[in-house]
Amino acid sequence: MTQRAPHSFGEQTPGASGTSGRPGPAMIDAGSELDPVHPMKLPTPAVSTRGLTAAEVAERIARGEVNDVPVRSSRSVREIVRANVFTRFNLIIGVLWLIMLSVAPIQDSLFGFVIIANTGIGIIQEWRAKKTLDSLAVIGEAKPTVRRDGVSAEISTTEIVLGDLVELGPGDKVVVDGTVAEADSLEIDESLLTGEADPVLKQPGDPVMSGSFVVAGGGSFAATKVGREAYAAQLAEEASRFTLVQSELRTGISTILKYVTWMMVPTAIGLIISQLFVNNNDFKGSVARTVGGIVPMIPEGLVLLTSVAFAIGVVRLGRKQCLVQELPAIEGLARVDVVCLDKTGTLTEGGMDVTEVRTLGGADDTYIQRVLGALGASDPRPNASLQAIVDAYPDGEEWRCTQSLPFSSARKYSGAAFDEGGGRASAWLLGAPDVLLPEQDPALTEIGQLNEQGLRVLLLARAQGELEGPDIAAGAVPSALVVLEQRLRPDAGETLAYFADQRVAAKVISGDNAVSVGAVAGKLGLPGAENTLDARRLPTDPDDMATAMEENAVFGRVTPQQKRDMVGALQSRGHTVAMTGDGVNDVLALKDADIGVSMGSGSEATRAVAQIVLLNNSFATLPSVVAEGRRVIGNITRVATLFLTKTVYSVLLAILVVCFQVDYPFLPRHLTLLSTLTIGVPAFFLALAPNKERAHPHFVRRVMRYAIPSGVIAAVATFVTYLIARHYYSGTGALDAETSAATLTLFLVSMWVLAIIARPYTLWRICLVAAMGLAFLIVLVVPWLQNFFALKLVGAAMPWTAVGIAVVAAAGLEFAWRLVGRRFPV
C-alpha cells in the first residue's frame, strides 16, 4: 500500500483554500446528508480531516459498512454455463436427440454429441476470456487515496468504509457518495450522471455523487453511502460486465436466427405430416428421416463460433496488455473510419522537459525562476507541464501560497498568489500565451516561431488583481516564456502510417496551440498535418463543423465541450469515430465516441468510460485491436455464409419433399457427416484465421445475398439427383442407394461453396479443403465406415450422374456469386 503525506488543504490560512477567499476546511457532519432510515448511517456525528482511525475502520468493517459492490469485468462461471447451455436451439436439438436415441441407431444421434462438444468448447473459451479480463481489470483498477490517521494511502475501491475521508485531484473519479470536507477550487463534472455539461464548483458540505469526476482543483470528501447504496454503484457494475450482444455482428446473427425459426416451424410441421402420415412408412424410419430433415435447418454452430472468436480475441489482446471492457469494442474499432487522437499521452509521452525560459519586459532571471518554483510547489497534483517546471525548479517552498487557481482545460491557464515575505505579495498566471495575450501582442510572433518547431510554450504573466472572477487575465503583464519540449512516442509514427494505409483518417485534437500540434504531427508523418485549425475559429453549426473536421487534420485550443461536439459532427456525416485520450478533458468525447480508448496511466474518469484501456500506455497497440476486430468480422461473415447455406438448402429440400410426397432422402447421420466436413471443421479454422480485410456494414445483407442462391442451387441439384435415382434404382435397398447418390451430390456442391469461401487460397486453406474431400472419400471406400454412415454407391452410372449434376451446380455457383457481387453490392 503506497503511503504519502496528506495534502496541505488543512494547513492553509483562512482565505487560502480557493479563489473566493472562503475559510479552510473544518469539521463536518459526515452523516448529515443521510436518509434518517438509511441502514448504514455513521455511528459518530463528525469526521476529522485526519480521517478515520484504525480502530474506527475496524469497527465499520465488523458492521459490514464496506464498499462491497463486486467489481466484475466478466460474467460469472454460472452465467457462462447457463448462456451456453440453455439456448433455444439447444432445447430443440436436445428434444430431437432424445427422440433419436429411442428410435434409431447411435450413428443417427451423433448430432447430439456434436452439440455437447460445441457447447463445451464455448464454455471453455469464454471462461478463458473471463480469466483474462478479470486479471487485466485488477491491473487497471482505480486506486482511490484515503486519509486515515492523518496519513494518505492508496487502497482498493472495495476497502473504503463508511465515513472514510477520500482525497480528490484532477481526473479522479468519485467512487462512492459523500459530502465535501475540503475544497480547493474543486470543480466536479456530473455530466455522466445528470447530463449537465458545466462543471459544478463544490464547497465544504456539498454532496458529491459516485460516477462524477474532478476536472479542476482538489479536496476531499467523507463517504456517506457505500456499497450498493451508492448512487452509481449498480450502473457501474452493470457497465463493467462482460458483454456479448450489443454489436452489429451479434444483432445480425440474432435477426437471422429469428427468421430461420419462422421458416423452420411450418416446414418442419409439413415434413412431419408428410413422412409420418402421408407416405405410410415404417414409424421409426419415418421419425429418423423427419429428424434428419429438421436438424440441419438449425445453424447451431454459428452462435458458438461467434462467441469463440470474440473470446479468443480477448485472450489475444490480453497478452498485449489491452483490456477490452466491452467485447463489441473489438468489432467496433474494426469498423472505425476516423480516429480522433489527443496529442498529449497519445502521440507524445506524458513527460516534458523545460528547455528554455525567455524573460520578457526586462524581468530578472533569478526572480522568474523563484516564481516558477513557487508555482510548482503550490499545486499538490501538478499536470505534465507543471511537473516539468517542478523538475527544473524544485526549490519553491520559500514563499507562502495564499490563493490558488488550479489548471482548467476550459480556461487554459492556472495561477497562484504568494506572500513573498517582507510585506511583498504577488499573483501569477501560467498558461496558453494566445489565451492570456491579446491577438496583436508582438510576443505572439516569437511564440509562433517556437510552435512551428513543435515546442510547447507557456506564458508566465503577473496578474493585476485577485485570482477570482471572469476577467482574471485582464491586464496581466507578460514576464516570461517557458519553452517545453515534448517527448514523442517512438511507435506513434508507425501507428499513424498503419491507419493511413488502412484508409482510416486520423484527426489530432488538442488543447495546445494548433501550429505546435501540427509540427509534432508532421514529425510523426501524419497525412495532412499542415492543415491546422484553431478551434476558437471553428464554426458552431454542426454541418459546418463537420466540413471543417473533414478538411483539416490538426485542431488546437480545443475545449472539452468542443471535443464532444467535434465527435458528434463527424458522426452526423456517417463516420464511425474512435477517440483516444488519457486526460479528464477527454472524458466527454470518449463517452460519445463510437469507441473510446484510454491509456492505462490516464485519469480514473477516462478509464471508466472507455471501452478499451491500453494498460501498457502504448498507442501502438491499437493496430492489434483493429486487426483482431477485422479478423472476427471478416471470418464470421465467411463462416456465416457456410452455416446459412446449409439452412437454406435444408428448408428447401424439406419443402420439395413435402410437395413431391416422397421420402426425405437423408438420415441424421448423413447430414452430420456433411455438416462436419463441409461446415463444422472448416468453419472453426476459417473463423480463427488471419484476416486483414476492412470491415463492412450490413452484415445480414452481405451474408444472405450469397447464402440464398448457394442454398437454392445446392437443394435443386441434390433433389434432381434424388429424383433421377428414384427412377434408376428399384427393389430392396433402393432407398439407401438413392440416399447415397443424393449425398454425393450435396457433398460436392457444399465443398464447392467451401472452396469459394476459402478464397484467396493459401497453402493451409488448400490443404484444409483437400483434407475434407479426402475424409469423405475414406468414408466411401472403407467398408465399416460405409456401414456406419449407411453410404454405399451402387453401380457406376448413377454416381457419375451425381458427379455431373454437381459439376453443373458448381458452375452455377460461380456464375451466381459473380452476378450477386456485381448486381447487389453492399
Give structural notes:
It contains 27 helices and 22 strands. With 826 residues, the protein is α+β, with helices and mostly antiparallel strands. Strands 1, 2, 3, 4, 5, 6, 7 and 8 form an 8-stranded antiparallel β-sheet that branches. It has an 8-stranded mixed β-sheet with strand order 9-22-21-20-10-17-19-18, sandwiched between helices.
SSE inventory with pairings:
Elements: E1 3-4, H1 54-62, H2 77-85, H3 88-103, H4 110-139, E2 145-148, E3 151-154, E4 165-168, E5 177-189, H5 191-194, E6 200-201, E7 207-208, E8 213-225, H6 233-239, H7 248-278, H8 283-294, H9 300-318, E9 322-324, H10 328-335, E10 338-341, E11 348-359, H11 365-378, H12 384-392, E12 400-405, E13 413-421, E14 424-431, H13 433-436, H14 443-452, E15 456-462, E16 477-488, H15 492-501, E17 505-509, H16 514-523, E18 532-534, H17 542-551, E19 554-556, H18 560-572, E20 577-581, H19 587-592, E21 595-599, H20 604-609, E22 612-614, H21 622-660, H22 668-687, H23 699-728, H24 734-757, H25 763-781, H26 783-789, H27 797-823
Parallel strand pairs: 10-17, 10-20, 17-19, 18-19, 20-21, 21-22
Antiparallel strand pairs: 1-3, 2-3, 2-4, 4-8, 5-6, 5-7, 5-8, 9-22, 11-16, 12-13, 13-14, 14-15, 15-16
Helix pairs in contact: 2-4, 3-8, 4-9, 7-8, 7-21, 8-22, 9-21, 9-22, 10-21, 11-12, 14-16, 17-18, 21-22, 21-23, 21-24, 22-24, 22-25, 23-24, 23-27, 24-25, 24-27, 25-26
